[in-house]
Predict the structure.
Amino acid sequence: MREPGSGEREAGKRGLFGLSRNVFVLGLVSFFNDLSSEMVYPLFPTFITEFLGAGAWFLGLVEGIADSVASLLNLFSGWISDRFRRRKALVMGGYSFSALSRGSLALVTAPWQAAAAWFGNRVGKGVRTAPRDALIADSCDPAERGRAFGYHRSMDHTGALFGAAAASVLITAFSLTYRSIFAIAFIPIAVGVILLSVGIREKRAPLCEDDDLPPERLSLSLRPYDRRFRWLLLAVFIFTMGNSSDAFLLLRARQGGGFSLALLPALWGVLHVVKAAVSIRGGVLSDRLGRKGVILGGWAIYVLAYAGFAFLEGPAWMWMLFVVYGFYYMTEAVLKAFVADLVPAALRGRAFGIYNFTVSITVLPASLLMGLLWDTAGPRYAFLVGAGLALAAMAVLAGAVRRPREAGFQGFPHFRR
């Protein structure tokens, strides 16, 4: 029989909000990291183009290369965390590297230096994400995975909201410069790294009865995984191909809703509030009713919102559509919990790496497709194509991915193909 991992043994030791110590601390770390990140991210484009004098093409190149490398690193960091049964070191290393890289932006004097710092920031994200998600799954009871991932995503969105607000206050009330804000942004992520180092407890333990996996099990192939996981990846790939950057929603609000530049941050803030509010609720609901139904419900909300953005105009409609669209984000946490349900514990790090890679590689083509359709056919057709791809993904998920047979399903301890 499969031995429980150290995190699962710890899951019974409840902390605040009924969460295990590891899950609670990882949520705090995510809050401080996103607080720091959102103080920097909205300013980085103008910093590198206006302050340092780089062209827009250079900014696009930096973003594209950094995101691509981070996607690939998700695969390998998940594999390494499974191979050596150590997740904390990779998570801490990733956050620490992002902290140092982000903080170094306060010292750069040339575009290539800023590009190197931003690249390092994304490398840190690529290193930490898959092992962190696996560590969350390891550290909670299977019947409460939705709640655990929901809490983590809620803290993530809350940190982002506070970070954007902090940057706005520092600029408007204190007239701070780019470098000063970047230096201040180093403080919260440093706090997060300290919390991670002292708050996370991890013991090396075998995750299955066959602790020494055969060599073929250590590859990045999908063959060791259950077919439902493969169909889930396909559904996610189709959905995210139509899920372009949310920047297009702001553009729609500007052009179709008549929003002033001063009101756009407020609209963006409302979206973050809804994201934070629904993440835990969606996760808890999936624990009670099943992951698949909640995901289908969230994707249906996405379809309705995108159809609304296609046909409705005016400020009142935009406010309502942003609120409705925010409810779709309940699926973020539920999808990760579903991944943990469908894969063996010993392959969990690699599974999260593959899942995050599948999501990440569609970011660029999805946004390019949206922009091309926007320019050639208009925003109505661009949003309708996104809604259509979401409907296709729902059909794949509904027809091909059945929920696990029982609560607490852990995958396949004997790795049946």
Notes: Residues 1-12, 205-218, 405-417 have pLDDT under 50 and may be disordered. The two ends are 18 Å apart (CA to CA).
